[in-house]
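Readers of this paper often ask what the protein records in our data store actually look like. Such a record has a labelled line for the sequence and another for the backbone structure tokens. The tokens are whole numbers drawn from a learned vocabulary of local backbone shapes. We quote a single record here, exactly as it is kept in our systems:
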Amino acid sequence: MLSTIGIHESVGAVFRPEALRDALEDIDPDVRIVSTGDLGGCDALVTLAYDNAFLEADLEWIHSIQAGVDRFPFDALESTGITLTNSTGIHGDAVGETVAGYMLSFARGLHHYRDNEADHEWDRQDWDVPFTLGEESVCVVGLGTLGRGVAARADALGMDVVGVKRTPIPVDHVGTVYPSGELKTTVAEARFVVVTVPLTDRTEGLIGTAELSAMRSDAVLINVARGRVLDQTALVDALETGTIGGAALDVFETEPLPADSPLWGMENVIVTPHAAAATGAYYRRIATLVRENVRRRDDGEGLANRVV
């Protein structure tokens, strides 16, 4: 049985560590907030960041508060005997609503009006620029938890929803599911292309020059996956040349997005700081996952969301 679970201070980038500690006060292991240099006595660690010092600590289990775990060295963890779990399955609603917000902003011009507000500028878009989402289509690339959350909300807004999935089986709220090999053909018809795949060797650079060139000139690319799923240089070029109509980006190859990135100055780009999954309930969702896996360990069951 576990004796002490550490809550790494890095989770403070997403929620107050104290909030998670207090939410777990009902479990048997001691729960305390720790730093990288203060892991002594911890059997398990709940963290956002990764540090090689984790391999040297006497940890049995690490839980990532994000679904993405590309920063963790799977082979090293496995050889050290550390189990890794993640938080997949809890972000579909928050990310889905963020994506709906992006699409509504582009459809209704809300980001332009917000920009004008700072200058007290009363200026409508040209009469033929606004549109309604019910007239448009969206292609969701990746139909896991995030993609299904996007699809459900797009469907509720009356959009024509198609999706791309390695195994093209039917998915609720998605009219047609296409295999990954038909990606370029599928994105070519959509007004919005939403990328929600996890970052793996297979998906790194998935959206590049060829895929962007296949998209409509008025299409908007939305990336809520990981920065390296998208060739950012190719995207900048596509935006500057008018190959596509715009982008909404929550993730980037380098985070924070460097101050000299041309993306900051583009009127047809919405930049958010890796915040698509943010919600005041985040820590409670993590607490539920951690509490369930403590129970499973005590009962000798396999851990939920096990990665390694």
